[in-house]
């Protein structure tokens, strides 16, 4: 790398997670826009984290590793005239999105690309990240352009397909054609449908592409991890789908959470504990595909999206 190389900042954004058990209350207070969880809610949340990780929070560790691996992937194929430096920006925990942008400014970054560790766009998720990042970048005088989605990148489909194929091997060979594959993602409030939000269709497009790649015809889509609010959320929920499949005499289910890219609460608790408990009660064999985490294929997906966005910008 030459001394004259231009440094490009990459703001890697994600939802965030508490770093320790004592950070759960402020974390969820931030999610609830300043309203602390009740003692009962806090106890339930704490119990969920203890159930999956015993006080160690893999999402933060996974995200740190993803940011580092993306920087290495970008620089491995960069020309001598460009150097990439990745910064982390979280929605609900430090370093917040604004903190990441401020650090770029402090380091003298003038041009940057933002990308969210979520392949599918919604104005209520990725759109919110981008809005905050661009507002702070404008205040800091940084030229920032952002990746909106990468849900059909060929390497993303390949990585997910490999996981489906690998997970199907956990079922007896004679049962494979009877295995119901459920693709899942985090639910959002139903009002996004009235807004013409692309989130549901992008998720279905990813699911269809993975199903075609793996020649899986016995599949459907289910939502998970809906918020407990007064407004309706997208459904059907995976737990309700499992109940339905039970009445249809389905005995083997593979869950592929295409909307998630790393192990965290919605995967390690909502699927690995809650959904598996439901499946066990229904005498159903349930497996889950491995998360992408720092898979080199996924890192290349992110790197490609960043460099393509940089070229557009």
Automatic annotation (TrEMBL):
Copy the pathway line from the protein's UniProt record.
Answer: Porphyrin-containing compound metabolism; protoheme biosynthesis
GO function terms (MF aspect): ferrochelatase activity; metal ion binding
Q: Name one GO cellular component term.
A: cytoplasm
Q: Which domain of life is it from?
A: Bacteria
List GO BP terms, alphabetically: heme biosynthetic process
Q: Which residues of the sequence carry a binding annotation for Fe(2+)?
A: 186, 266
Residues that coordinate or bind Fe-coproporphyrin III: 15, 32, 48-49, 129
- Check the UniProt entry and state the signal peptide residues, or none: none
Gene3D superfamilies assigned:
3.40.50.1400
Query: Which InterPro entries does the UniProt record give?
Result: Ferrochelatase, Ferrochelatase_AS, Ferrochelatase_C, Ferrochelatase_N
What's the short name of a Pfam family annotated to this entry?
Answer: Ferrochelatase
Compartments annotated for it: namely: Cytoplasm
Q: What does the record give as the reaction this protein catalyses?
A: Fe-coproporphyrin III + 2 H(+) = coproporphyrin III + Fe(2+)
Q: What EC number is given for this enzyme?
A: 4.99.1.9
Q: What keywords sit in the KW lines? A: Cytoplasm, Heme biosynthesis, Iron, Lyase, Metal-binding, Porphyrin biosynthesis
* SUPFAM superfamilies named in the record: Chelatase
The enzyme's main class, written as a single word, is: lyase
Q: Which HAMAP family match?
A: Ferrochelatase
What family does the entry list? Belongs to the ferrochelatase family.
Function as written in the Swiss-Prot or TrEMBL entry: Involved in coproporphyrin-dependent heme b biosynthesis. Catalyzes the insertion of ferrous iron into coproporphyrin III to form Fe-coproporphyrin III.
Protein name (Swiss-Prot/TrEMBL) = Coproporphyrin III ferrochelatase
- Organism this protein belongs to: Xylanibacillus composti
């Amino acid at each position: 790398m030459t001394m004259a190389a231009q440094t490009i900042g990459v703001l890697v954004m994600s939802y965030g997670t508490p770093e320790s058990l004592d950070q759960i209350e402020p974390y969820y207070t931030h999610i609830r826009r300043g309203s602390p969880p009740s003692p009962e809610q806090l106890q339930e949340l704490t119990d969920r984290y203890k159930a999956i990780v015993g006080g160690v929070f893999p999402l933060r560790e996974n995200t740190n590793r993803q940011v580092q691996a993306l920087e290495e992937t970008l620089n491995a194929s960069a020309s001598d005239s460009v150097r990439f430096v990745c910064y982390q920006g979280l929605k609900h925990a430090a370093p917040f999105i604004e903190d990441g942008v401020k650090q770029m400014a402090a380091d003298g970054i003038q041009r940057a690309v933002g990308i969210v560790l979520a392949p599918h766009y919604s104005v209520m998720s990725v759109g919110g990240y981008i809005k905050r990042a661009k507002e702070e970048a404008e205040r800091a005088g940084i030229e920032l352009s952002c990746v909106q989605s990468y849900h059909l990148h060929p390497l993303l489909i390949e990585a997910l397909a490999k996981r489906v194929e690998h997970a199907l091997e956990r079922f007896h060979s004679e049962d494979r054609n009877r295995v119901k594959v459920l693709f899942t993602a985090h639910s959002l409030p139903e009002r996004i449908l009235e807004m013409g939000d692309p989130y549901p269709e992008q998720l279905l497009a990813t699911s269809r592409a993975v199903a075609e790649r793996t020649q899986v015809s016995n599949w459907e889509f289910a939502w998970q991890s809906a918020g407990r609010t007064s407004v309706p959320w997208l459904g059907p929920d995976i737990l309700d789908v499992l109940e339905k499949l039970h009445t249809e005499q389905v005995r083997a289910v593979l869950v592929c959470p295409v909307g998630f890219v790393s192990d965290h609460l919605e995967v390690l608790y909502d699927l690995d504990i809650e959904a598996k408990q439901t499946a066990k009660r229904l005498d159903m064999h349930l497996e889950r595909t491995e998360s992408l985490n720092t898979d080199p294929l996924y890192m290349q997906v992110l790197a490609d999206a960043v460099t393509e966005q940089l070229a557009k910008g």
